[in-house]
Amino acid sequence: MIMKRIFAVFLILAMLPLSVFAAFENTHINTGNGAEDIIAVALTQLGYMEGSLEGTVQGYNDCTKYGEWYGLNYHAWCAMFVSWCANQAAIPTTVIPKHSSCDEGMKWFVNRGQFQYGSYYGGTYNPKRGDIVYFGAPKSSGNGYDATHVGIVYMVDDTRIHVLEGNSSYKVQTVTYKKNIKYVLGYGVPRYGSSAAEREPGRYIITASSLHLRSEPTKSSTSILLIPYGTEVEITEIANEIWGKTTYNGKTGWVSLDYCTMGYTVRYNTNGGGSAPATQIKNAETDLIITSTKPERTGYTFMGWSTSADGAVVYKSGDKYKEDKSIVLYAVWKLNTYTVKLDGNGGTPATTTLTKEHGKNLGISVTPVLAGYKFKGWSTVKNGSVEYTSVYNVDKSVTLYAVWEKDRATFTVTYNANGGTNAPAADKFSEGSEIKITTKVPTREGYTFEGWAYSGNVKWATVFAGDVYNKNASVTLYAVWSKSVSALTLNAGAGGRIQRYVSGNTVTLRVLANEGNSISYIAVDAVPVALAGDTTEYIIELDTRTHTVKAEFTYNDGLWINPFADVSSKAWYYGAIEYCYKANIMTGVDATHFAPNATVTRGQFVTLLGRLHGVTDVKGSLPFKDTSSKHYYYKYLVWAYNNKIVAGTSADKFSPNAHITREQLCVMLYNYEKYKGTQGVFSDRLLSDYSDSTNISSWAREAMAWAVYNRVISGSDGKLLPRNNATRAQAAVIIKNHSS
Q1: Is pLDDT larger for residue 582 or for residue 474?
Q2: 74: β partners
Q3: Angstrom distance (rounded) from CA 382 to CA 378
Q4: Which terminus, N or C, of the chain has the lesser number of Cβ atoms within 10 Å?
Q5: Which residues contact 520 (CB under 8 A, 6 or more apart)?
C-alpha cells in the first residue's frame, strides 16, 4: 500500500502541465526513498532548456546549470542531468556515479554487476521506477557498445518505458520508448536500499515539509498539530506498520512513518553570514556527506564548518560526518583578500603576485619589459586589449596579462641541460609561426630525462617532445631529471604518461592524463589501484625496490558519431565539422551528407554567425527587398544588420544567395568581434608572408590582417586566395579556429 500511494502521487505529478515546474528549482524534500526522490527531483526540472543557467531561453549551446554544477559546462549534458538529480536526491555516488560520459556511467554499472541489457540484446529484465536507462548502439567493430544518451525511468507498462531525460531536444522532458527497440541498450539498477524496512521504536526525523500529529493511527483521524520538517521525535510505539506514537510540544499522538526516517540531524549556523544551508538528515550507521552549499558574508571567505561558534574548521564540503548523534555546525570565516597575479605574458618579470584588500584600490607599479615591445597596460584576457593601467579596483581574484605593442621579431627556444650535458641546439622561429619541441634529449649520468619545464627547480616536467610552442616570445626550457631507478618499470598507455621523482629511498610517481582523457586503470605490481570518478592525476609513492607500474587512459571527450558519408575522419577539416555539428552551428545538406566542397552563400554565413552567438528571437526591420521574414536566415540577418556586422550589396539588396568570398567572410567575422569588443590588438605585418596579399581588397585588409594574426584563417601554398569563394569545409575550419 505504501508504494502504491507513492506511485500514485508521482503519476499525478507526471501528468501536471509544464508550467507547474517552470521555476526549475528543486522544491522536493527528500523522503529517504532513493528511487522516488530522484524521480521527484527530475520532475521539478521539466521544461528546462539549454541556452542559459536559468533554463528559460533555448540557445542550442549546451549551457545549463547542470554543467555549471558539474564543472563541465557547454558539453553534452544528459549524464550530468542524471548526476545532478541524484545529488539533489542525496543519493551517494556509490549508488549512482557522478558522470558526464554515458559510456563511463554504463561501464560503472556493468563492472559492478548492476546492469541489465534491454530485450533487443537478449535481456529478460523488466525495468522499474528509478532505473537508469542507457541508449546507444553496438560499436562498429562489433566489440561492445557506445552509450550516447541516458535518462531516469519513471513509469513502466507492458511494452513501454517512460523516461525523464535531459538534453532531449535541447531540454528536460519526458519521452516514451518501446522496451524492445534497438536504441535501448539496457538499465543501470541502483542499489537504493530498502524503502520499506521494518519499523521499530526509536529516534526519527520528520522528512515532510510539515507532518500531522493525529489523534489515532489513521489518516482520517483528527489532526492535533503540525510538526515541522527536520524535527527529531522519539517513537515509543508502532501501529499498523506505518504509524508511530510520539509526544511533541506536550501533545501525544500518531505520525505516519512514511514521512519519517530513523536518524539524526546536522544543522548549519552561518555565524554572521546569510541564509543557512538546509538541515541534513543522517541515517544511523551511515556516513553523511557535508553539504556543498556555502553561505555568503560580504567581505569574508567561507572556510568550512566548526563544532563551535569560535572554533577552527572541522568539516568541509564533501567531508563525511560519521557520528550517530545530532549536531549544529558553525560557519568559519576569514576576512576576504584577493590575489592579483600579474603575468608578464612573455616579459620580465614573468609573474608578480599582489594582494588586494576588500573594498580598497590596489596600486600597480610593476612595469614589465620585453625587448622589441612596448608595454601598454593590463588585460584580463591573455591576448586582449588594455583594461587597467596603474590601479585595479575590483574585489575579485584575477590574473592580469601584460598587453604588448610589438614589432615583427625572431624568437628563440633555448634548451638548458640543467646539470646535464649535450643540450639540444636552440630553435628559432619568426613572429606568427610555431615550432615543435625537439625530440633530442640531453644526458646526465645516473639520471633519467623526464622532459622540460619553464623553471630549473621544479619537480615535474610540463613540456614534452612534439608539443607545439607558438608564443611570440623567447623562452628557456630546463631539463627535468629524476634519479635512475633500474628496478622500476613504467608502462603508460596512449592518452597519458607516468612521471617520476626520486628523493632518497622514495620514488614518487605522477600518473597524468592528457587533455580530454582520464585515468581508467592503474596497477602497482599487478595490484589495481582504486580510482574514483573522472581522475586525471594520481600520485603514487614507492620505495626503490623492484616495482612495475601500469596505467591506462580513456578518451572521454564528447561522443560524436559522424553521420556524413562524404566526410572522412582523415580529412583536414574533420575536427572542424565535428565541432560545428556538435555546437549546432552547421548541419548537413541532408541527413548523411555535409557537402564540404560546396560554396557558402551570404545568407548561410550570416546564419552561422547568428547560431555561433546564440541569437533567438529578435525585433527590427531590414531595407532589403530581396529578403523575407519567411527565409531561414531572416532573424539572424536582422540581428547582424542592426549591429553593423553585415551590410548590403546595395542600398536595397543583400544578395543572400550570392557566394561569399574568403575576404568577405573574414570581414563579417571581424565585425562580429568588434561588436563584442574582443578584436584585440594586432598588426598587418604577417600579411606580407603571402604572395597574393596585394589581391586583398582595401576594404577587407584590416579584417584579413586580424584573421591571419589570430590564426583564424591560413593560406594554401603560401597564398590567402582572398577573392576565392569560401567552401563549407573552409567556413567550418574558420569558425572553429575563431572559437578555439
Answers
A1: 474
A2: none
A3: 9
A4: N
A5: 531, 552, 553, 554
pLDDT in tens, 21-49: 446 899 999 988 899 899 999 999 999 99
Q: What is the pLDDT of residues 343-372, one digit of tens each?
A: 999 999 999 999 998 888 999 999 999 987
Higher pLDDT residue, 462 or 261? 462
**CA-CA-CA-CA torsion for 585, 587, 589, 590, nearest 10 degrees?**
-160
d(CA 404, CA 368): 10
The 10 Å Cβ neighbour count of residue 196 is 11
Residues in Cβ contact with 315 at an 8 Å cutoff, skipping those fewer than 6 apart: 290, 304, 305, 306, 321, 329
Mean pLDDT of 669-697: 87
Q: What is the pLDDT of residues 477-499, one digit of tens each?
A: 999 999 998 889 999 999 899 99
Other CB atoms within a 10 A radius of the CB of residue 433 amount to 12
Residue type at position 145: Y
- Residue 680, SS3 per DSSP: coil
Q: How many residues does the chain have?
A: 740
Please write the tens of the pLDDT for every residue from 223-263.
999 999 888 899 999 998 789 999 999 999 999 887 777 77
Phi, psi of 359 (to 5 degrees): 85, 0
**Could you give the CA distance from residue 18 to residue 25 in angstroms, rounded to a whole number?**
14
Strands 202-206 and 160-168: unpaired
User: What is the pLDDT confidence band of residue 443, given thresholds at 50, 70 and 90?
Assistant: very high
Q: Which residues pair with 496 in a beta bridge?
A: 513
Give CA angle at 92 (86, 97), nearest 5°.
70
* Cell numbers found for residue 549: 607500474
- Assess contact for 306 and 327: CB atoms under 8 A: no
- Give the Cα separation of 715 and 713 in Å (integer): 7
Average pLDDT over residues 698-706: 90
State the average pLDDT over residues 291-306. Answer: 91
Which pLDDT band, with edges at 50, 70 and 90, does 112 fall under? Answer: low
Distance CA 188, CA 684 (A): 57
The C-alpha atoms of residue 30 and residue 14 are separated, in whole angstroms, by 17
Exposure pattern of 478-500 as b/e (b: 16+ CB <10 Å)? bbbbbeebeebebebbebbbbbb
Question: How many angstroms separate the first and last alpha carbons of the chain?
Answer: 57
Q: Determine what percent of the chain is predicted with pLDDT higher than 70.
A: 93
Cα 113 from Cα 550, distance rounded (Å): 25
Is the pLDDT confidence value at 558 over 60?
no
> Which three three-digit cell numbers place residue 576?
572542424
Q: What are phi and psi of 639, to 5 degrees?
A: -60, -50
Q: Which amino acid is at 732?
A: A
Task: List beta partners, residue 246.
Answer: 253
pLDDT value at residue 5: 34
φ, ψ dihedrals at 544, nearest 5°: -90, 15
Please state the rounded mean pLDDT for residues 724-728. Answer: 92
Residues facing residue 521 across a β-bridge:
552
Closest by Cα among 266, 279, 214 to 243: 214
List CB contacts of 276: < 8 A, sequence separation 6 or more.
Answer: 267, 268, 269, 270, 295
Mean pLDDT score of the chain, rounded to an integer? 87
pLDDT at site 727: 92
CA distance 51 to 171: 9
Is the bond preceding residue 368 a cis peptide, omega within 30 degrees? no
**The predicted structure's pLDDT at residue 559:** 52
- Amino acid symbol at 677: G
| CA–CA–CA angle 278, 302, 72 (5° rounding) | 75
CA separation, residue 22 to residues 16, 27, 51, 82 (Å): 11, 12, 15, 19
* Radius of gyration of the chain from its Cα atoms, rounded to whole angstroms: 31
Name residue 659's amino acid.
Answer: H
Q: Find where cell 615550432 sits.
A: 435
Let me know: does 480 contact 458? Beta carbons within 8 Å.
yes
